[in-house]
Request: fold
Amino acid sequence: MISVRADAGRILIGKQLLPQTGKRCQALRLFGQCAIVSDTNVARQYADILKQSLISTGFRPTVITIPAGEKSKTLEQAGVICDRMIAAGLDRQSFIIGLGGGVIGDISGFVAAIYHRGIPHVQIPTTLLAMVDSSIGGKTGVNTRDGKNLIGAVHHPLLVIDDLDVLKTLPRREFNQGFAEIIKHAVIADDKMFRTLQSWGARSPRRPLALQSLIKRNIEIKSRIVAKDERDRTGERALLNFGHTVGHAIERAGDYRKFLHGEALSLGIVAACAISKRRAGLAPDQRDAIVDLLRQFELPTTLPKNFPREKVFDALKFDKKFEGGKVRFVVTPRVGAAHLANDVTLDDIREAVKDL
Ligand SMILES: NC(=O)c1ccc[n+]([C@@H]2O[C@H](COP(=O)([O-])OP(=O)(O)OC[C@H]3O[C@@H](n4cnc5c(N)ncnc54)[C@H](O)[C@@H]3O)[C@@H](O)[C@H]2O)c1
Ligand SMILES: [Zn+2]
Reply:
């Protein structure tokens, strides 16, 4: 097992960690009652192991399960969780454990931020995406009818437990989408990690030791960037949005059904590379290497011929402010570096999406 300090808490990465949760919580002087918030898919596999670990160390857990999927990430559902916690007698000495992917991390963290004006949050991410991205940085929240993540709070988890064993049951498509965020981190901040990923070739990426150090490295990259700009004020944190301007637009154009977030991001990265060639001097062979790496992890790099590209432009205009026809856009001049460009135009983006 390895341990990393990040944000306001500690992150443990290794195998066989889920059954040790009770002991780990004790070590942080947590005690008494807690809520385990999970979704239907994850609870079926792992809630009992977690519950037993907590009971055997003297905690009194209440399991609260919500339907799996993004549609559960609402204020309404957060209210239901709060009501269940009140009914079970949880008070301000209690704490919450989120057991699941990014959806559970975001909603359980949000409830932890508002319940009795804030109680400790422990996260047990069960998707690769949640381990390398959503469990870091302290952003929590829910969606509204009009958009994603419009309501939320910054509330850092006290403890994050990344148990590699839970990834064994994660469907392959869900596993691969985590690599879109990992490749994004490599492109914006770490050319060495980029080469390591290339060297993995077709070998199974599920090897625990390789995954352990990869997850650790991604946590370091994201938390370093977040520490410089926690509240999105200086532009540093915006670098994490590399590939996301077009990625979000594609996700929305596909009604959040056609592509998983990481898949839309993969396409967004391809578009951002085309724009980087034009506006930041990205060399063609570097662009090709990035696209090859996305393909290596079975991520899409072209849009289906019949995909409604016009809907992508509509979504872009909905999402972004184009001042004087220009937008702030993250570009990469070479693998391992990124900056915000102010001179990217809607036409640049339109061209890049047309070529996808
Ligand atoms: N807070 C942040 O900084 C941040 C950053 C990135 C993404 N997010 C959020 O994260 C969410 C996406 O997260 P996600 O991709 O993890 O989605 P998710 O939580 O919906 O999980 C994906 C699917 O996999 C299932 N699953 C999870 N773990 C499993 C396991 N070990 N075995 C079998 N099935 C499992 C889930 O039930 C679900 O059906 C979005 O809501 C996004 O907004 C937040
Ligand atoms: Zn993302």
Notes: The first helix runs from residue 21 to 27.
